[in-house]
Amino acid sequence: MWRWVAGCVCVWGMAINSLHAAPLTVKTESPSVYTVQKGDTLWDISEHFLESPWRWPELWQANDYIKNPHLIYPGDQLHLIWRDGRPQLQLKRTVKLSPRVRVERTPILTLPAQLLLPYVEDHRLLTAADVSRLPRVMGDSQRQQFITPGAAIWVDEPLSPQRQWGVYRPDGSFTRTLASGETVEVVALKAIAEVSVVGQADDRSQIAITTLLQEVRQNDVLLPSPAPVRESALRFVPSAPPHGLHAQVLGGLTNQQQYLATAMVVVLDRGHLDGTRAGQVFQIHRPAVPIRGESGDYRYGSVAQHTSATGLAGPVVGDVMVIRPYEHFSLAVITRAAAPFEPGLAARPPEVSSGPGKGAS
């Protein structure tokens, strides 16, 4: 089972979604007691217990003592109990301190900062029109194709020397057609380097690389460096999207990714103007399978060829959670994928059912 890497996010902001009318389904093989391990997250802890681990806030909702800023730590014991027919987790601390020993523990995260920080801090989705207006790298005095620290790099616009600047590379574009018929396009910008302005001449700026993630190239674009992201920006509480809010997984941040898998960040064709919010979880569905014919003569068909064809629901192949919504698009992380899948699949609100586990009624 894939697990998030180690991190640190506290349990807070538990807004239980009213759409969760179905009872929680607890796995038949779930443990009665679980000891929190280093590297655990609230998501994969709940995966030990729940058929739908994204519903972990409901597993904790009755615990008044698990609120901001209270945390759970490696070594704590979580006891699965039942109250009024609903599963709950109780927290029991296990740390013992002697008068001469001081123990410092790092709390666990809901999601891994190492994975998500670039996408909420550095990477960007901008409209094609906005990208066309950004300053661009002209080149360096040594005619390098891949520019490294120490080179004299020139930009085709004057830049403020009082600011830090980031260098980004356009790395894929995505389009959608709105209900109005208007087509909107965004360009994914990948963070390449941090630079500072060291000189200006003839409406141009000279820059120097201060932090390098990848070699700078001609025609890379520049944006003012963003403010550091607070830890609170990584505190996602999973929730169900509004009923009827369907999206499509357009692809990864680069058009070169033919298949998508767990832990990859993808672009959805719905944004905050559509009702998308950080933390919303969608299920990824393959297309419905068209069936034509009558009883005794069923055959696989094509909806385009046979308008009378009916469809068998496409299988669920994974889950994605929104981490950064824009106006018409969103960045989302794949939290689970049964197998690598191709871009273009549908993303829909989770189908919540009681299932066959301990929580079924």
Q: Characteristics of this structure?
A:
seven-stranded antiparallel sheet, six-stranded antiparallel barrel, 33% strand, mainly beta, disordered N terminus, globular, 361 residues, Thrombin, subunit H, 19 strands
Textual characterization of the structure:
By secondary structure, the chain is mainly beta. The protein has four helices and 19 strands. Strand 14 (289-292) and strand 15 (299-300) form a beta hairpin. The longest helix is centred in the N-terminal third of the chain and has 10 residues, at 113-122. The chain is globular, with a radius of gyration of 24 Å. The two termini are 28 Å apart.
Structure in a nutshell:
By secondary structure, the protein is mainly beta. The chain is built from four helices and 19 strands. Strands 4, 5, 6, 7, 8, 9 and 10 form a seven-stranded antiparallel β-sheet that branches.
List the helices and strands and how they pair.
Blueprint lengths: L32 E3 L6 H6 L8 H5 L16 E7 L2 E7 L20 H10 L1 E4 H5 L4 E4 L12 E3 L9 E13 L5 E19 L2 E9 L8 E4 L22 E6 L12 E4 L12 E5 L3 E4 L6 E2 L9 E3 L3 E10 L4 E8 L8 E3 L13
Antiparallel strand pairs: 1-2, 2-3, 4-8, 5-6, 6-9, 7-8, 7-10, 8-9, 11-12, 11-19, 12-18, 13-17, 13-19, 14-15, 14-16, 17-18
Write down the domain tally: 3
**pLDDT < 50 stretches:** 1-20, 64-70, 95-110, 353-357
What is the terminal-to-terminal distance? 28 Å
Q: Which word captures the global form?
A: globular
Name the structural class.
mainly beta
Share of β-strand residues: 25-35%
Oligomer: single chain
**Mean pLDDT, as a whole number?**
76
Radius of gyration: 24 Å
Total helical elements: 4
Helix amount: under 10%
Please provide the ordered H/E string of secondary-structure elements.
EHHEEHEHEEEEEEEEEEEEEEE
Largest sheet: 7 strands, antiparallel
The beta-strand count equals 19
